[in-house]
Amino acid sequence: MSTPSSNPFADSSNPDPGQLRAVAITDHTYFYLLFREYNLRDHIDGTADLLACDADWLAIDATIIRWLFLTVSPDIFKTVVREGDDARTVWGKINGLFTNNKLQRVVFLQQEFFGTPQGDQTLDAYCLRLKAISDELQDLGFQIGDELLLSTLTAGLNEDLGNAASNLTLMTNPTFERAVDYLRLEERQLKGVRTRAVHTALWASGNSVLPHGGV
Q1: Is 9 exposed, middle or buried (0-12, 13-18, 19+ CB in 10 A)?
Q2: 214 pLDDT higher than 50
């Protein structure tokens, strides 16, 4: 009884190296689909016996490395790739680099999202900042729901608007957008109250100019 060959090119269904060299890699979006389409998964999942691989296998491995070089930043490629690395090693290094950076970015943005108070910012500036951080987190796969966005907003409001935010609990089905609209009105009213208070104080001290026609 013959022993099955560990050489992946013993199967005639494997691709031709020349065919792969002609692939326009920049026209493809997902490497995993490309590996499946051309039966290349054993180049990156470690299932092939590299000692038994022939010249065609090594040529295709080099082509995959060239694909990776053409689709990532040259600086990133030079940072992680070493001479003698096979396609599986290069694939693992690049994936690991992006995964680690992604996790670090998520942690940093979470800290910024939950730890950014309004302070002296206007309401619009504060809301835009929170929304921008939440959008970036969602792009990285960390979902920020409307309820969490709303609770973070109210928790970080300054003292003036913080008092007004208690009224949000009276709102039916509150959303981030509806809460912002309400708080904008409150902010406008507060500015009006401050302006009138300043004018009243100036009038009382005699520093205000009398209206036209006054005596």
Answers
A1: middle
A2: no
Separation CA 93–CA 113 (nearest Å) = 30
- Name the one residue in this structure whose structure tokens are 């005699």: 206
17 class by beta-carbon count within 10 Å (0-12 exposed, 13-18 middle, 19+ buried): middle
Q: What does the domain layout of the chain look like in residue ranges?
A: 11-99, 119-205
Contact 140, 105 (CB under 8 A): yes
How many other CB atoms are found less than 10 A from the CB of residue 81? 17
d(CA 133, CA 88): 35
Q: Give me the numbers of helices (H) and strands (E) for the chain, helices first please.
A: 9, 0
Centroid of chain to Cα 206: 57
* Gap between the terminal Cα atoms of the chain: 120
CA-closest candidate to residue 125, choices 72, 168, 95, 161: 161
> Alpha-carbon distance 184 to 181, whole Å?
5
Angle between helices 123-139 and 176-205 (to 10 degrees): 160
Write the pLDDT tens digit of every residue in 49-81. 665 668 888 899 999 999 999 888 888 888 888
| 98 neighbors 159 (Cβ within 8 angstroms) | no
What is the C-alpha to C-alpha distance for residues 84 and 61, in angstroms, rounded to an integer? Answer: 11
Closest CA to 183 of 158, 212, 205: 158
Q: Are 38 and 15 in contact (CB under 8 A)?
A: yes
